[in-house]
Structure formats: C-alpha cells, structure tokens
Here is the input.
Amino acid sequence: MKVIVNDILLNHIESGHPHGLPVVFIHGFPFNHSMWELQIKNLPTSFRVIAYDIRGLGKSDIGTGESSIDKHADDLIGLLDDLKIDKAVVCGLSMGGYIALRAIEKYPERFKGLVLCDTKSESDTEEARQKRFDSIKKIESEGTLDFSRDFVKKVLSKKTIETKPKLVAELEHKILENSSQGIISAQKAMAMRSDTTSILKKIKVPTLVMVGEQDEVTPLAAAQSLKEKIPNAYLEIVPGAGHMSNLENPKAFNEKLISFLNRFEQTLH
Ligand code: MLT
Here is the structure.
C-alpha cells in the first residue's frame, strides 16, 4: 500500500495484529521490503508488523533533490505518523541500520526497541566513499547488471553462494528491479552519511545487535563495538551467514529476533 510521506509516495506492507507491538523493518541496500518475507511470515501474529521500501528503491518514489540518511530517517517517522504509531521496535539491516541509528538520534521518543543487523555506526572512510563514487560511475555508463552480480557475491558467505543458488539468483533479480537512479541515490546517501558512534551511549531502549558470522561488509568487530557502546544491548551471531544474515540463515535469525521481541512484549508492551 502506498501512503504520502514527506515529498513521496512510500510503499509498505502490514500484517499481524493491528493493536500488537509495532515492529518496523527497514531493508538493506539495494533491495526492497520483500527481503524480510521470511521474518514477516514467521513472527507471531500478536505483533503489528510493517515493512516498507525506502525512497528510491522498491516501489517507493525517489523524491526530489539529493537523498540523504537524514531524509530516510524522516521518512520512517513520517510513516509511523501516517500509521498512527507512537513508538515502535525498529529493525534495520545494514543501510536500514544506518537509517534506524540516525532516526533514534533525531527522534528517540519514537522508539520502543532497536534491532541492528549487519550494520555499523561509523561513517564511510575516504576509501569507501571513493569506491561508492567509482561504482556510481560504472552504473551510469554500464547499467546495473554487473553491479548486481558483484554486489551479491560480496554480501553472501561462501557457504551460501555454494549451497543456495536460488537465493543468489533471487537477490540479483531484486537488485535489477530497482532503477539505476534509485541505486545511485542510495549510494550517495550512504557516502555522505554522518557518523552516529557518539550517540550510541544515549540509546535508552533495549537493543539487539545481530551479525552474520562471516559478514565481511560490516564484520563482527563492528557489531561488537555497537554492543559495547549501547548501554542495554545484546549481541547475537548468526552462524554460517554473511552480510544478509536474515536470508542466509533465517531459522537462527528468526529464533534470536523472536526471543528478543517476546521478552519485550512481556515486560514493556
Ligand atoms: C547494505 O547492505 O545496506 C550496504 O551494503 C551497506 C553499505 O554499503 O555500507
């Protein structure tokens, strides 16, 4: 379903119980809300589950002007406003985590809990930023086909690549469903994002940090740093998974996520 949020039409889906604890999923770059399908299907129906396409990706509009993680954070809050949700547990993977961290910095009162998957608080190094601009140039001249193949190889563990060819093909396909402009705009937003490390100590809500055991994009050390700096954080490692931990080992991922959310429901909801 599409709703007007800030300057765009934002696509989202909703399932579960309308009065349940709201859990909002933010996907990673450069996918769409459907990367959470295996979580949405398996969460207890007592939760109110929302997943959306961030601006420029999936079926959400790209909007006008340059995109930024700040704008993405404002979109999240705009969506909560539209859905009349005062506070939610927000679960973001990678770029979704960058957005969640920026949003909790700006709007801490809108959070009941936080799940940070395969992500980090540090901004890009000069080298990482340059790589993004090189990749943007390549997409501008060649399109997204090679980019999609290289990207998927980078984010999945060796084990996943060898044993799950269907997942590899599906992820390449999901990337190709996005426009080049959408992918470029998200890359620019990530390249220019500010560092959120200094705000981690101010996070008051229970936080689950998850990371794929073989994540090479945002490795275990980044997750450990989040866990150490956020006062009320737990760290869970997803065995056998790379950067796309929720898709590579959904069983382990879901167990850890559901156990965190259940504890929550009992104590805080
Ligand atoms: C993602 O998975 O969202 C991106 O790979 C993160 C990044 O490029 O920093």
Notes: Residues 250-268 form the longest helix (19 residues). The beta strands are 2-5, 8-16, 22-26, 48-52, 88-93, 111-117, 207-212, 233-238. DSSP finds eleven helices and eight strands in the chain.
